[in-house]
């Protein structure tokens, strides 16, 4: 009896030799074709075993192979293929090893299956790629020589379940305070570390925007799914296989200003687009939301200043700091505890320095709500004007 892998390899070889007879995209027709080839190749195979191999081969030829079964689990939020033979998943906020051995060819096949319809390129000359699966999940792949142990693929799942403030440990008056800030048109910065739930919380807060308002979302990879109907979604585009045609978040921020937005929602600021965002927030686009990587509320302001300086306009720190002071009203800091649970740790408002010299006096924050024990508790009243917009 041939080994399973040898048998699968022979079937794939026959299918490749008869490429015109392989109806990719039509699972039923492909299944019938593979069934015939499998019957000719291994006529003595038991019916039960043949059915299992049939499904595995169909998934590999026209899908993501065994990864499809893993992604079918709604509790899996992240898949990490570190290298051939090393795979992990995140479920319920905890990382656990995956009892499936992916070889280098399987990992490459998964990445190529995702990027092929998008016109992207992944090879030694272009060894890093970001792409989006049909369900909105995000794929990031790195190849040798940048990944010396073999191809590496990370898939951040798009989970369609609508999250609420309660899912982030905020309820009662504290939740009303943050939701009220969104309704009243505060420009909010959602800060946190990697995989802390920033984008998920961003979507949760954005869903509180009045349905009558026009929202323009800007993301490097589209993940947000808002319940409102008056939403325009913009997504950055990487360079094509020839290395041209890239459109970054910064260009999309500029384009959004010409689309008559009531609210601008930016998935993440991580470069010079921070400067363009500050310009937008200082020219009448109240109630906008965005995320940024940071380790705390004060650090979020410092990082935003540094990102704005990356725009390359050689402005003094004081000028950028003044822009931040007038643009950002509050910061929501979200974190993940040792058990994998994500929660809002701090909600603070931005406070301008009493001294008018922005160059030497950094911005401060006033903590309005802070996590104590197992809940988010209000600890201070806001001094900021309560209404920035009238809906």
Describe this structure in words.
There is one protein chain. This protein has 391 residues and is α/β, with parallel strands linked by helices. The chain has three domains: 4-62, no CATH class; 67-156, Beta-Lactamase (2-Layer Sandwich), CATH 3.30.450.90; 165-378, 3-Layer(aba) Sandwich (Rossmann fold), CATH 3.40.50.300. 32% of the residues lie in helices and 22% in strands. The chain has eleven helices and 15 strands. It has a nine-stranded mixed β-sheet, with helices on both faces. The chain has a six-stranded antiparallel β-sheet with strand order 3-2-1-6-5-4, covered by helices on one side. Helix 8 (249-256) packs parallel to helix 9, helix 9 (273-281) packs across helix 11 and helix 10 packs across helix 11. The longest helix has 16 residues, at 47-62. The radius of gyration is 25 Å and the shape is elongated. The mean pLDDT is 84.
**What's the CATH first level of the largest domain?**
Alpha Beta
Q: Give the overall pLDDT as a whole number.
A: 84
Beta-strand proportion: 15-25%
Largest sheet: 9 strands, mixed
Query: What is Rg?
Result: 25 Å
Q: Into which percent range does the helicity of residues fall?
A: 25-40%
CATH architecture of the largest domain: 3-Layer(aba) Sandwich
CATH topology name of the largest domain: Rossmann fold
The computed structural class is: alpha/beta
CATH homologous superfamily identity of the largest domain? P-loop containing nucleotide triphosphate hydrolases
Point out poorly predicted stretches: none
| DSSP strand count | 15
The strands making up the biggest β-sheet line up spatially as 9-8-10-11-7-12-13-14-15
Number of helices: 11
Order of secondary-structure elements: HHHHEEEHEEEHEHEEHEHEHHEEEE
Q: Please, how many domains? A: 3
């Amino acid at each position: 009896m041939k080994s399973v892998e040898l048998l699968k390899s022979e079937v794939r070889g026959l299918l490749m030799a008869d490429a015109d007879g392989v109806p990719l995209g039509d699972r039923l027709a492909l299944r019938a074709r593979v069934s015939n080839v499998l019957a000719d190749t291994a006529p003595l195979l038991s019916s039960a075993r043949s059915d299992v191999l049939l499904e595995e081969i169909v998934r590999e030829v026209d899908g993501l192979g065994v990864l499809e079964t893993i992604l079918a689990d709604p509790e899996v939020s992240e898949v990490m293929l570190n290298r051939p033979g090393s795979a992990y998943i995140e479920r319920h906020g905890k990382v656990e090893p995956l009892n499936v051995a992916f070889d280098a060819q399987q990992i490459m096949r998964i990445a190529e299956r995702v990027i092929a319809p998008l016109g992207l390129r992944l090879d030694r000359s272009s060894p890093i790629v970001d792409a989006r699966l049909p369900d909105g999940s995000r794929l990031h792949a790195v190849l040798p020589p940048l990944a010396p142990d073999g191809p590496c693929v990370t898939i951040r799942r798009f989970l369609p379940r609508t999250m609420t403030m309660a899912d982030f440990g905020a309820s009662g008056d504290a939740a009303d305070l943050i939701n009220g800030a969104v309704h009243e048109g505060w420009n909010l910065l959602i800060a946190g570390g990697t995989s802390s739930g920033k984008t998920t919380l961003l979507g949760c807060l954005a869903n509180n925007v009045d349905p009558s308002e026009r929202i323009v979302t800007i993301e490097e990879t589209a993940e947000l799914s808002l319940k409102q109907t008056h939403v325009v979604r913009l997504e950055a585009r990487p360079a094509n296989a020839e290395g041209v045609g890239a459109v970054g978040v910064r260009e999309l921020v500029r384009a959004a200003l010409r689309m008559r937005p009531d609210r601008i929602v930016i998935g993440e600021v991580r470069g010079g687009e921070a400067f363009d965002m500050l310009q937008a927030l200082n020219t009448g686009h109240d109630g906008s939301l965005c995320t940024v990587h940071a380790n705390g509320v004060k650090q979020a302001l410092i990082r935003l200043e540094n990102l704005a300086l990356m725009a390359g306009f050689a402005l003094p720190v004081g000028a950028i700091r003044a822009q931040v002071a007038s643009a950002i009203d509050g910061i929501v800091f979200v974190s993940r505890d040792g058990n994998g649970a994500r929660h809002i740790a701090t909600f603070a408002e931005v406070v301008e320095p009493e001294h008018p010299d922005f160059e030497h006096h950094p911005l401060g924050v006033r903590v309005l709500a802070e996590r104590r024990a197992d809940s988010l508790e209000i600890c201070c009243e806001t001094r900021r004007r309560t209404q920035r917009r009238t809906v």
